[in-house]
Amino acid sequence: MAKQPPTKRRKKSLLLNAEQYDLVAAAWRHYKSYVGAFDDHDDEEIEEDDEELEEEDIDFDEILEVVDLLSQLDIPKKEKKQKNVLNEDTFASIQSILPIMLSMSYLHIANYSMSEALEQPPEHYFEQSLMYWPENPAANSLLADYLKQTNLGSDMSTICDIYVKAATYAGLVKDAAIKFTDVPHEKEEDRFDLNEMVDILVMGGALDMTEDDDGGGGEQGDEEEDDNDREEDEQEFHSCSNMAVGGKDYDDKKKSALNTTVAFEPRMYYSKEGVLPQEYYHRLCTLFAPDASYWDESDYNNRGYYSYYFDVTKNTRNVVEDAIVNHLLPMAERTLEEEHNEPAPKIVICGAEWWVHTRPHSANLGHPLHFDTDEWLLNNKHEISHPVVSSVLYLTGGGAGAGSTIVFDQTPNAKENATQVWLSEPKNNHFMNFPGNLLHGVLPCVGGPSSNSDTDKNRLTLMVGFWTRDVTKGMKNRKLYGPCGPLPPATDEHSWVLEAQRDVKQVSCCTVEATTLKVASPAWETIHDPHGREAELAVPLDVPTSLDHQYFVTNAPQCFTERLFGKDNC
C-alpha cells in the first residue's frame, strides 16, 4: 500500500460557538443537497418531510436556506482595497471557507434568477457573491456572460476585463485548491471535512460552473482526476469564459486566458554599479563569452530558435536562474505593480523563458522584427500567446553603435501601423523590459564597441520572457534545444551547464532606478520616388531573404502577424 501523507493538525477555531457550528453544519447539509453531493450516510440525515416536496422546490429552497442560515453569522465581506492572496491557507479553516460557501450560494441564486424572476435582479446576487469572495472565478465568468447578454450599460472593454479576471482567478484558485486537497486535514470540531468542502465548493463548483448550469449540480464523482484531466478542464473553462470576448485588444484571441496583457511604456532599469551584483554579472559574461563552450555545445550558429523555461516558484539550479529570480524578476514585478492600475487581481508571474544572443560588432545586421510567442502553441494550435513582460539584459558590447533594441506600439491584431517606436540603446548591466505582445527587433550595429576588451566587442544579451502560465504543460514533446526546452543534463557534453551550477555568493544589489526610453515618430515612413510621389520605385527594392529583417515591408501591419503562421507577404 502506498504511504499516505500525514494528516495536518490544525488549531481549534475560536470564531464560532457550539450553536453557530450547528448552524454551519445545517447550512452545509442543505448546500450538499442542492448540488447533489450527498452520499448514502448523508441521505439518512435529510428530514423525511423534505422528500414530499417536488424536486425543483427542494433545490431552490435548499440554497435559500443556506443563505438564511449563514446570514445569521457575522461573515465578513472583503474590502475592495483588500489585497487578494490565494494559497492553500485560503481554505485552512471554517472561518475562511464560510465566505466561499456564501459566495457560491449567492451565485447559484444569481444563476437561477436569470431564468426565473426573483425579488432582486441577477446583478444584485452577483454583487453579493463577489462581495464575499471577489476571487470566485465562476461568479466573474457568469457575470460577464450576463452583462454581455443583457447590455446593461457595460462596454465591451469592461466585459473583456471581467473575462480575463475570471480566467486569471481560475488558475490561482485551482492551484491553491489542489495543494490544499492533496494533503489530508483533520476534521474541524470532529465533523467538518475541509477537504470535502473544498472539493465540492471549489473544484466541483467555482471551477466547474458554466452558463449552462441551471442550479442543482450533478453527482459528485468519487474518482480523482489526474493532472492531464485537470489541465484539460482548466483549458475548457478558459475557453468557455472567453469565447465571446471581442473589442479592445482581445478580438484576435480565441482564448484570452492564454494572455495576460498590461500596457506600459518600455523602461530601462539601471544603477551606477549595474542592475546585477558584480559577481553575478561577471559570471554571466564569462559563461556566455564569445569563446565559451556554450555556443559550440548548443550549436548556436546552426540551430533555429531555442530557449529554456523554468518555474520561478521552485528552487533555482544555476547562476542564470539565480540572476533571473533574485534580481530581474523583482524588476519585472515592479513594472507590473506600478503600471497595472486596474482593480483586477495581482498579476502573478509563474515562469521564465530565457535565451541568449551574441553578435560581433563588426558583422552585426541586427535582429528581425518579430513578436515573442509560445512557439509550440503557435506551431501546433495556431494560437498566439505571449509573455506578460519581455525583457533584455545587456551584458557586453553596450555603447555607441551597438545596435539599439526597437519596440513598436504594435500588437499582432493591430489594424493600423505603429505610430511610434521606442529605442533602447544598449548599456552594459542595464535591464530593459516592455509589454510582451509588442513588435520588436534590433537595429544593425555600425561599429565602435564601448571598450577595447575582446569580450566587449560582442553585443551579448540575455533575453527573458516572464509568463503568467506554465507554457510547458500543453507541450507533448519538450525538446532539448527547442523553444521552452528543458535545461540540458550536467554532463561533459554540456559542460556549460556544469559551469553554470557553480555556487554564486548570494548578495543584494544596490537600489535600481527606472527611466523611459527615447521615442521616435513616425515609426514608419513611406518610400517616395524622386518626384515626391508615393509610387513604385524605378528600381524595385529586392532584399535578399537572408538579410531581410523586415525593415522594408509591404502589406503592413498584417504581414507581421501573417509571418507568424508562415505566410511571407512582407
Give structural notes.
By secondary structure, the chain is of the alpha+beta class. Helix content is 34%, strand content 11%. It has helices spanning 18-35, 40-43, 55-70, 94-113, 122-132, 137-150, 156-181, 194-206, 227-242, 278-287, 293-297, 319-339, 375-381, 495-500, 558-564, and strands spanning 267-270, 308-311, 351-360, 367-370, 389-396, 405-408, 421-424, 430-435, 440-442, 458-467, 513-516, 518-520. The strands form 2 sheets. The chain has a 7-stranded antiparallel beta sheet with strand order 2-3-10-5-8-1-11. A 5-stranded antiparallel beta sheet has the order 4-9-6-7-12, with no helix packed on it. The longest helix is centred in the N-terminal third of the chain and has 26 residues, at 156-181. It is elongated and about 80 Å long.
Name the descriptors.
single chain; 570 residues; alpha+beta; seven-stranded antiparallel sheet; five-stranded antiparallel sheet; 34% helix; disordered N terminus
Structural class: alpha+beta
Radius of gyration: 28 Å
How many H/I helical runs?
15
The parts where pLDDT drops under 50 for at least 5 residues are 1-14, 38-57, 210-256
- Shape by Cα distribution: elongated
Topology:
Blueprint: H1 18-35, H2 40-43, H3 55-70, H4 94-113, H5 122-132, H6 137-150, H7 156-181, H8 194-206, H9 227-242, E1 267-270, H10 278-287, H11 293-297, E2 308-311, H12 319-339, E3 351-360, E4 367-370, H13 375-381, E5 389-396, E6 405-408, E7 421-424, E8 430-435, E9 440-442, E10 458-467, H14 495-500, E11 513-516, E12 518-520, H15 558-564
Antiparallel strand pairs: 1-8, 1-11, 2-3, 3-10, 4-9, 5-8, 5-10, 6-7, 6-9, 7-12
Helix pairs in contact: 1-3, 3-4, 4-5, 4-8, 5-6, 6-7, 7-8, 7-9
